């Protein structure tokens, strides 16, 4: 009985979603596309078809997430407790090394591209280009 109510809710939500997105798509298409691009107006069912086509091409019909919000929240809280306990057991030197390692990891992989490039140049990973410039200027003379 409980499962049938859930299935009924899903069917009703899908129907209402298609109805709402179909109406919105039809309204926006018929107001904008003929005027901007000289296209024909669409019917409600054509708008629903556009919504479904857009969903297939851009988003798919897969299940989003994988676990529910409450499970994600529990895992996040457990991770926070674990890290607080780990942090409390560290000496000040270990904490400093941990901070430095996390900053280095961020600089190398997580930061914006321009920051990663700057970190490569600062650390010498990208190579010293001044030698190359000297050699090329000597060749040109």
Name the structural class: mainly alpha
From the N-terminal CA to the C-terminal CA, the straight-line distance is 89 Å
Number of E-state strands = 0
Name the helicity range.
over 70%
Characterize the main sheet: none
User: Mean pLDDT, as a whole number?
Assistant: 80
Shape: flat
Strand content: under 5%
Rg computed from alpha carbons, rounded to a whole number of angstroms: 28 Å
Poorly predicted regions: none
Structure described in brief:
With 141 residues, the chain is mainly alpha-helical. The chain is 81% helix and 0% strand.
Describe, in plain words, how this protein is organized in 3D.
This protein is mostly helical. Among the domains are: 2-59; 91-126, no CATH class. It is built from six helices and no strands. The protein is flat, with a radius of gyration of 28 Å.
Key terms for this structure?
0% strand; 141 residues; mainly alpha
Summarize the helices and strands and which ones pair or pack.
Elements: H1 2-37, H2 44-59, H3 69-88, H4 92-110, H5 113-123, H6 129-140
Helix pairs in contact: 1-2, 4-5
């Amino acid at each position: 009985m409980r499962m049938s109510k859930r299935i009924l809710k899903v069917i009703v939500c899908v129907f209402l979603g298609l109805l709402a997105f179909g109406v919105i798509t039809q309204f926006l298409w018929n107001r904008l596309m003929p005027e901007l691009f000289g296209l024909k107006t669409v019917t409600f069912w054509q708008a629903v078809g556009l919504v479904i086509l857009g969903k297939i091409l851009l988003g798919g019909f897969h299940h989003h997430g994988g676990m529910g919000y409450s499970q994600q929240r529990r895992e996040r809280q457990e991770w926070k407790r674990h890290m607080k306990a780990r942090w409390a057991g560290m000496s000040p030197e270990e904490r400093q090394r941990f901070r430095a390692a996390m900053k280095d990891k961020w600089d190398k992989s997580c930061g914006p591209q321009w920051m990663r490039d700057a970190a490569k140049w600062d650390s010498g990973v990208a190579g010293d280009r001044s030698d190359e410039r000297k050699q090329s200027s000597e060749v040109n003379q």
